[in-house]
Design a protein that fits this description.
The structure holds two protein chains of two kinds. By secondary structure, chain A is mostly helical. Chain A is 59% helix and 1% strand. By secondary structure, chain B is mostly helical. Chain B is 64% helix and 1% strand. Classes of the chains: A mainly alpha, B mainly alpha.
């Protein structure tokens, strides 16, 4: 018996060493480690990563953002500005503008960080950390906002309004649709860049579904526009939860440039709640069996524990008079 | 013409015995199939393997009902249909994925047990050879199965491994195209690997398992001391009831009772992995759909192929391929390279003991290096470990020839 345990110990030790080498150790060596910044958007990482000639501009930009953040915003006048400027593009049924369709802002106050929103209105390309793509950041698809909402107080007012009135309870799916799905489809969640895939019916006589074909064409056109603007079609995120580590996704969402320098993906400026909701949705479509696993696992293991106890008793009875 | 009892009722014991010799079969294959008593749990690995193969077969049959061997549909049929829409599809898939990885862990334990106790010599050569044949067949089965989800790693591993057949500077590109059925992995490639995985390989494996069992019957399994047992004498003692004096036990039920107990412990481990720790068996890279225009940053095989991959990698193309070929066949030659007359555990065999542990550690080092990016210190360690692998096999006949008879 003691000898058997000794042999088992050796087998277990070698197996664990093997596991450690090919899994945790190998993966720690294969991927560069990126530290997160706790979803604080103060431009620290942007300034560090920036080329020399851009450092000063970025420092000044984020210092201005900090200044605006300290102003007290007026919700009522923010609402007026929001309705007369923002809402004309960020509306239901918005059409593609310069490559991307403006997202809904229904829950923007709940899922986006305040500093990020300020920065975004002040200069969308700088805030999203994709200014390297533009000679003149005013040519960003949302660049027009820079001339429309230009005073510091106006920016503070609009953000105060968004934070106060556009901050209702948000589901993981809504958070994903608003923050990610203008560019990323999620086919397992039945989402395209145009939102939820509508239910259509095929003609029973011909078997053809013309409404679906029309919808597919619209999606294809939207995808073409995105690919032209971004350089490639952003990947479908159905199962990205299994394809990348949680740490990668979180740091990537916080600052895409940190994991993939030069990427066309803008920072989305999610706050803690927004990130949690988006991650929850990615888990829901990427790893939907988790609740079922957790429910069934203990029963299966309990079965085999009982099986093993009975097998041990049988073995003892068979081997009793052998020695 | 044998004698048939005309009065025997159909399907009665007598009736079956006349037609199938069930009493004899039961005696030869089960109740009087003698196994040495002096064994430890490592002797149960064969049955553990058989059980794991059974699990793979059953889970595979369920997956086969929904899997689509089509380059456009394969990825989603695995990751969406089976994982989301099929009842317990996720369970079958995780069982199959974990089983495919764990079966190699048990194969390696089984192999190194054989090497440690010298269970490939003096009448047991065919056991070893048929076992090695099974190793190769399981490798082919694992590789072909890895193609099926049609993720990035399926595609690029398929590309890299089939490229090996160009033979380096032989430039046998025609052979590579013939294997792929196309210039690059595509529908023809997926279709044929699907066929290999679900039909041809399992058929051949089942045949090889039967053969492997067959090779065991006459030489009997080895024991912890490599002792040559007089099975007839020991069997006589056992049947006379002198069980304590006898050195053997019957396969059924005595040996089996221990096997089943070991299997129980194994299943607890196995299903713990299935429910709580399956990620190690399913590489993240393979959850990106196959894309021939985007090479993944790191391409590496599953862990059980890493040691031979690392023997290929540190050398220039042609010597690398030769080294790789050497590594694939050298284990087959073990019974003929070990020149010692002793059948005994490595711990009593002097230099062979050192050889055994060096080989084991060297293969673990090769495995580690096979996954790490081939840069800097990692490539140097990989090269040294690969050279040590060859040195060990060249040294084997010499050190075993010098071994003293016990």
């Amino acid at each position: 018996m003691n000898k058997e345990l000794k042999i088992l110990g050796i087998v277990v030790i070698f197996t664990l060493i093997l596991y450690w080498g090919v899994e945790p150790f190998a993966h720690s060596q294969m991927h560069k480690h990126v530290e997160g910044h706790g979803l604080i958007y103060d431009g620290k990482a942007d300034i560090e990563e920036a080329s020399k000639d851009k450092k000063e501009v970025k420092k000044k930009f984020w210092a201005d953002v900090k200044k605006i953040a300290s102003l007290k915003g007026d919700v009522a006048s923010g609402e007026t500005i929001f309705n007369s400027t923002c809402a004309s593009c960020h509306m239901k049924g918005a059409s593609n503008m310069g490559g991307v369709t403006p997202p809904s802002l229904d829950h923007a106050g709940a899922i986006y960080d305040k500093n990020f929103l300020i920065a975004l209105i002040k200069n969308p390309a700088m805030a999203t950390n994709v200014d390297h793509k533009y000679k003149d950041t005013a040519t960003h698809p949302m660049g027009a906002v820079m001339s429309m909402v230009s005073s510091d107080q106006d920016i503070a007012n609009v953000v105060a309004y968004i934070k106060a009135k556009k901050a209702g309870e948000v589901t993981p799916k809504e958070a994903f649709i608003e923050a990610c799905s203008r560019c990323h489809a999620n086919r397992y969640g039945k989402l395209t860049q145009l939102g939820e895939i509508p239910k259509t019916k095929s003609n029973i006589k011909t078997g053809q579904d013309i409404d679906k074909m029309k919808y597919d064409q619209k999606v294809a056109e939207e995808q073409n526009a995105l690919a032209d603007y971004l350089g490639k079609l952003p990947p479908d995120l159905s199962i990205i939860y299994r394809a990348r580590s949680e740490h990668f996704l979180e740091t990537f969402i916080e600052n895409p440039q940190s994991q993939l320098p030069g990427t066309a993906m803008p920072r989305t400026g999610l706050d803690k709640e927004g990130l949690e909701k988006v991650m929850a949705y990615l888990e829901e479509t990427g790893d939907p069996s988790k609740p079922a696993r957790d429910a069934l696992g203990p029963w299966v293991l309990a079965f085999f524990v009982i099986f093993t106890i009975l097998a041990y008793l049988w073995k003892q009875s068979q081997w009793r008079d052998l020695h | 013409m044998a004698h048939f009892d005309e009065n025997a009722k159909p399907f009665s014991h007598q009736w079956l015995n006349d037609r199938l010799a069930i009493d004899t079969l039961k005696r030869v294959l089960s109740t009087e199939y003698w196994i040495p008593k002096n064994i430890n749990f490592l002797w149960a690995m064969g049955m553990v393997l058989a059980a794991t193969f059974g699990i793979l077969l059953i889970s595979g049959i369920f997956l086969l009902m929904y899997y689509q061997p089509n380059t456009k549909l394969a990825f989603d049929s695995v990751n969406y249909t089976i994982m989301t829409e099929v009842g317990y599809g996720w369970l079958w898939r995780h069982i199959h994925g974990v089983g495919a990885s764990v079966v190699f862990l048990i194969i390696y334990i089984h192999m190194f047990t054989g090497i440690y106790y010298g269970s490939y010599k003096r009448g047991r050569e065919l056991i070893w050879l048929s076992g090695m044949l099974l190793f190769v067949l399981f490798s082919a089965e694992a590789f072909s199965g890895y193609m099926l989800p049609w993720g990035q790693m399926s595609y690029w591993a398929g590309m890299v491994i089939t490229n090996l057949f160009s033979g380096g500077s032989l430039h046998a590109d025609g052979l590579v195209e013939w294997i792929r059925g196309d210039y690059v992995p595509g529908q023809a490639f997926l279709g044929r690997f699907f066929m290999l995985h679900v039909l041809l390989m399992p058929l051949v494996i089942i045949g090889a398992i039967v053969f492997h069992f067959g090779t065991l019957r006459l030489p009997h399994v080895n024991n912890q001391d490599g002792e040559e047992i007089d099975f007839e004498e020991s069997a006589r003692l056992y049947k006379e009831g002198k069980k304590a004096e006898s050195k053997v036990i019957p396969f059924n039920p005595v040996f089996l009772s221990k096997d089943v107990f070991v299997m129980g412990i194994y299943f607890i481990f196995f299903f713990y992995l299935v429910f709580y720790h399956f990620e190690f068996a399913m590489d993240p890279v393979n959850f990106d759909p196959a894309n021939g225009l985007k090479t993944p940053t790191h391409i590496y095989p599953e862990w059980y192929f890493l040691w031979s991959y690392e023997i290929l990698r540190p050398f220039p193309t042609d010597p690398g391929l030769i080294a790789f070929g050497f590594a694939q066949v050298i284990f087959f030659l073990l019974p003929f390279l070990d020149r010692s007359p002793n059948v005994a555990p490595a711990s009593r065999r002097g230099a062979f003991k050192v050889w055994f542990w060096l080989l084991l550690i060297d293969m673990i080092v090769l495995t580690f290096m096979g996954k790490l990016p081939p840069q800097g210190i990692w490539s140097t360690i990989g090269l040294v470990a690969a050279l040590l692998f060859f040195a060990l096999w060249i040294a084997l006949p010499i050190i075993t020839k010098l071994e003293k008879k016990l």
